Request: fold
Amino acid sequence: EPPKRKKDKYRKPKPWDNDTIDHWKMEPFTREDNPHPFLEESSFATLFPTYREKYLKEIWPLVTKALKEHGVAC
Reply:
């Protein structure tokens, strides 16, 4: 075992971080993951460049449909 560096003095092995975990795996999000609807509503505004406006208007119905499938209303 190589000698420990000074900056590694307080490093300890993490039990939740081992080689058997695939850190890039994406877990599917299902209705069972969110059994209760959200209780609060939030809103925000973002300024997009004008050249993106047409694209956003075209795709927004698809975005709201995808969110609605997961219980998120727009």
